[in-house]
């Protein structure tokens, strides 16, 4: 699909459009489709009360009333704060302030496991967006067992996982060009065609963003401008704005700008999403530590790409990109709420297991519950270490105790043990 185009129109077209301004059906359509913030490509095939061009001209005119403008270097950006945006932002503000915290408190013993699982989900999905073909099941097993990646796709996922854990550690640091290069190095290690491109800014103008048919969708700025653009990008990320920009909106803008500047030969998307996380965690949106936004993006990958295209084709109107990303974030929050509800149900089940158990602690009961879901899946000490964030000795004691109690069968596999679930009753 080619880059969507916005229709050109004359002064006479504009005059003709305004002749419809007092027509109820026309104005109703204008406000209806502006509320949805349709792009021309989404509007032109609709059944409309007037020529689509006239509807579009009026839609654009009304959009200008509340438009906010932002200039980044020579890049003019703009966006509308739709009512739908404000609702989602308010929900996120409440969530970050603690309304979801109470739910997480009720499963506090699962927090570390939840964070690790979310980082895994984010790492896997972010890699899959960029073409990694490893399944979630295989990828998670690799990460939990700390197995070395066997191919480029697995390496990409491991790099993303390491990067996400590092982002949590550096969330209070100012963003610098050096830090961006470090993030890029970590996220692309041993995955690029030319290893010299790891942590190195683009030094050519050969990079283009194409569709599957070879049509050019985006031509990034000249490579000679990248160093200065990244300096200004860091200044923008670190500074408070003269005109207030909501932190979630600004995080989405930073995400877009990395994609627009395309400072690297490869790895731009993964780097952009990592910086988005860094910024929201820096602004105390603690909930993002638990969120796998890229999973929501992966499930609507075509819309993600289209959000970039709609923005660039319509005079860098970021509203399209913000609309898409806020929806993805909302999906990620909804997944957290479902997780909390699920864990609360499992806690009740866990208490029953404990009542019938041979002196199991809470973590050991959790291990049994996970094995009930996947009874044919062997488990290892390394997997317990990574999943539950415990020391080797603790993980070993857990599995040996469960084996002694009759829940697991211990088998030797090379230099390590694997444990197979035997069932809830001792044999």
From TrEMBL:
InterPro entries: DeoR_HTH, Fido, Fido-like_dom_sf, Fido_containing, WH_DNA-bd_sf. Keywords: Transcription, Transcription regulation. Residues 175-327 form the Fido domain. Pfam families: Fic, HTH_DeoR. It comes from the Archaea. GO terms for molecular function: DNA-binding transcription factor activity. This is Fic family protein.
């Amino acid at each position: 699909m080619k880059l969507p185009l916005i229709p050109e129109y004359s002064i006479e077209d504009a005059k003709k459009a305004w002749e419809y301004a007092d027509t109820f059906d026309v104005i109703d359509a204008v406000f209806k489709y502006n509320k949805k913030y349709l792009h021309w490509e989404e509007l032109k095939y609709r059944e409309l009360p007037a020529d689509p061009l006239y509807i579009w001209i009026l839609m654009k005119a009304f959009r200008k009333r509340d438009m906010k403008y932002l200039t980044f270097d020579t890049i003019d950006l703009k966006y509308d704060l739709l009512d739908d945006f404000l609702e989602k932002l308010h929900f996120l503000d409440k969530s970050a302030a603690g309304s979801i915290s109470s739910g997480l408190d009720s499963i506090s013993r699962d927090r570390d496991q939840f964070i690790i699982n979310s980082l895994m989900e984010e790492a896997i999905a972010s890699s899959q967006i960029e073409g990694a073909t490893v399944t979630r099941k295989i990828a998670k097993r690799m990460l939990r067992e700390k197995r070395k990646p066997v191919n480029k796709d697995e390496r990409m996922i491991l790099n993303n996982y390491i990067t996400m854990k590092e982002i949590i550690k550096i969330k209070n640091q100012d963003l610098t060009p050096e830090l961006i290069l470090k993030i890029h190095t970590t996220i692309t290690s041993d995955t690029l065609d030319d290893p010299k491109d790891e942590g190195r800014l683009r030094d050519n103008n050969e990079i283009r963003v194409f569709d599957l048919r070879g049509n050019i969708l985006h031509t990034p700025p000249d490579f000679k401008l990248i160093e200065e653009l990244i300096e200004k990008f860091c200044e923008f990320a670190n500074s408070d704005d003269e005109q207030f920009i909501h932190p979630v909106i600004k995080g989405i803008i930073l995400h877009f700008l990395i994609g627009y500047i395309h400072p690297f030969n490869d790895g731009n998307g993964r780097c952009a999403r990592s910086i988005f996380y860094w910024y929201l965690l820096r602004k105390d949106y603690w909930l993002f530590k638990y969120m796998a936004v890229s999973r929501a993006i992966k499930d609507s990958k075509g819309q993600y790409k289209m959000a970039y295209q709609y923005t660039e084709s319509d005079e860098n109107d970021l509203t399209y990109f913000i609309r898409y990303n806020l929806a993805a974030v909302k999906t990620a929050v909804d997944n957290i709420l479902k997780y909390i509800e699920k864990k609360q149900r499992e806690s009740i089940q866990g208490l029953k297991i404990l009542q019938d158990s041979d002196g199991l602690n809470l973590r050991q009961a959790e291990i049994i519950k996970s094995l009930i879901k996947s009874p044919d899946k062997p488990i290892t000490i390394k997997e317990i270490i990574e999943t539950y964030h415990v020391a080797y000795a603790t993980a070993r004691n857990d599995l040996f105790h469960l084996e002694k109690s009759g829940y697991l069968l211990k088998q030797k596999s090379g230099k390590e043990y694997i444990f197979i679930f035997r069932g809830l009753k001792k044999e």
